[in-house]
UniProtKB/TrEMBL annotation:
Belongs to the class-III pyridoxal-phosphate-dependent aminotransferase family. This is 4-aminobutyrate aminotransferase. It holds the Pfam family Aminotran_3. Keywords: Aminotransferase, Pyridoxal phosphate, Transferase. The keyword Transferase applies. Its cofactor is pyridoxal 5'-phosphate. The keyword Cell cycle does not apply.
Length: 483
């Protein structure tokens, strides 16, 4: 196997060994191809009753361990995709299994409460010891929901209700509002809008989908709200060679954003943005751009929502990616899901909580079982300082990838994510090359994912260490050499 020169770093004792003493040191193969024949057969049978057109392979989660995912045939692949960025502490982490077997979890599973009407007696404790303990700076309140899409949907609802409450100045609903809304008409139904950014992704439910701009396939045939779209900067790489051009591009986007706001025929209730546009191609922008967004939204009375569904919970070397921006004032809402195994949004302004019951409401309003898992995840992250470890491993990984990219003979370009933990991506020179690289990596025991038109992204666990990075880098270089 090819060896890549690596920068020297001082690494502390392996933390993943503490959790996974039997984790493989390299991919394990039991069949001549991945997926193996058993996995293919199971997937074929599954397809008779379930839409499995997007299946990579059928996994055996009983046999998956740590940073390695097993297919149904027992092949174990180093996983740097991790259920689309949703595995924080590795497969079958013993601390999460311990939480799952607790009496607290059993009660939450078998008595799943309708939280808005019958919250369990210890829900505040569960939140304060986990999700709220991890709240972004300036956030003291939380709404829990069912998924990342639902987190954004409910944040949008909070924004609309907040903005209309301001317009009413404390007055009650009018008879006309109460009657017209039942016919989906104004003034009861809002004409306000949510602004999002080109290439952004915020979910696949109706409101979230109206703000999703990453791929047409997500949106085709679905009715959509006519909500505005602003440009997101298209940076040039390497960043240090294009500093002036990138600053000009970010300023252009900020100027266009303000122009859209000033000329909008409808009031913009909120603007939503991802710290890194993940599904849209791992598109980055600088703190200058995001501070500009905060300033412009505040100037025009627009709520600023940061979608941390994919970027949150440590992967970027900060617990929340927007902490990299050093904002002068915090966002109004921060949505989350994925690595927290739970979902919802944080906020600080109590007026974002509607005054009347049943407005922000559904049967479950989240799930205590997921909040219990989130508590265990947070406590393990803090106990082992996994955010700091991820930042260190990310720097090591990034410099190793610089070597791979430089030796790829133009197949790889636009490496990005420096000083952003393991939240790293790069482009391929063509769709065909990307497909071949991903397949070659799978054949060599590496599970990796794509995003955008040409990009490959990394989404490993927070227990991904130097030893895993070395395996990854060697497989990737061997794979690109085969293409």
């Amino acid at each position: 196997m090819l060896r890549i020169p690596k920068p020297s770093y001082r690494f502390v004792r392996s933390i993943s060994t503490k959790y996974f003493p039997n984790e493989p040191s390299a991919p394990v193969f039991t069949t001549s191809s991945v997926p193996g024949p058993k996995s293919k057969q199971i997937n074929q049978e599954l397809g008779e009753v379930y839409d499995n057109g997007a299946t990579y392979f059928v996994a055996d989660y009983f046999q998956s361990i740590g940073n390695y995912i097993s297919d149904a045939d027992g092949n174990k692949l180093l996983d740097v995709y991790c259920q689309i960025s949703s595995i924080p502490l590795g497969y079958n982490n013993p601390k999460l299994i311990e939480a799952a077997k607790s009496d607290e979890m059993v009660s939450a599973i078998v008595n799943r409460p309708a939280l808005a009407c019958f919250p369990q007696s210890n829900y505040k404790d569960i939140l304060e010891q986990g999700l709220l303990a991890a709240a972004p700076p300036g956030m003291t309140k939380i709404w829990t929901s069912l998924s990342g899409s639902d987190a954004n949907e409910t944040a949008y609802k909070a924004a609309f209700m907040y903005q209309h409450a301001k317009l009413r100045k404390g007055a009650d609903f009018t008879a006309e509002e109460l009657s017209s809304v039942m016919d989906n008409k104004t003034p009861g139904a809002s004409e306000m809008v949510i602004l999002s950014f080109d290439k952004g992704f915020h979910g696949r439910t109706f409101g979230a989908l109206a703000t999703t701009r990453s791929k047409a396939i997500h949106k085709l045939d679905i009715p959509a709200f006519p909500w505005p779209k602003a440009p997101f900067p298209q940076l040039k790489y390497p960043l240090e060679e294009f500093a002036a051009e990138n600053r000009q591009e970010e300023q252009r986007c900020l100027d266009e954003l303000e122009n859209i706001i000033v000329n909008s025929p409808k009031q913009i209730a909120a603007a939503i943005v991802e710290p890194v546009q993940s599904e849209g191609g791992d598109n980055h922008a600088s703190s200058f751009f995001f501070q500009g967004l905060r300033d412009i939204t505040a100037k025009h009375g627009i709520l600023f929502i940061v979608d941390e569904v994919q970027t949150g919970v440590g992967a970027t070397g900060k617990f929340w990616a927007h902490e990299h921006w050093n904002l002068t004032s915090p966002p109004d809402m921060v949505t989350f899901s994925k690595k927290f195994q739970a979902a919802g949004f944080y906020f600080g302004n109590g007026d974002l909580q509607p005054k009347q019951p049943f407005r922000q409401f559904n049967t479950w309003c989240g799930d205590p079982t997921k909040a219990i898992l989130a508590k265990a995840i947070y406590q393990e992250i803090k106990a082992s300082d996994l955010v700091t470890r991820t930042a260190t491993v990310g720097n090591y990984l990034y410099q190793g990838l610089q070597t791979v990219v430089s030796k790829s003979q133009g197949k790889f370009l636009n490496l990005r994510g420096e000083n952003y933990g393991t939240f790293i991506a790069w482009d391929c020179c063509s769709v065909e090359v990307r497909a071949k690289v991903l397949q070659a990596c799978k054949d060599l025991g590496l599970n990796m994912g794509a995003c955008g038109d040409l990009s490959i992204r990394l989404r490993p666990t927070l227990l991904f260490e130097k030893k895993h990075a070395d395996v990854f880098l060697n497989i990737l270089e061997e794979a690109v050499g085969k293409v």
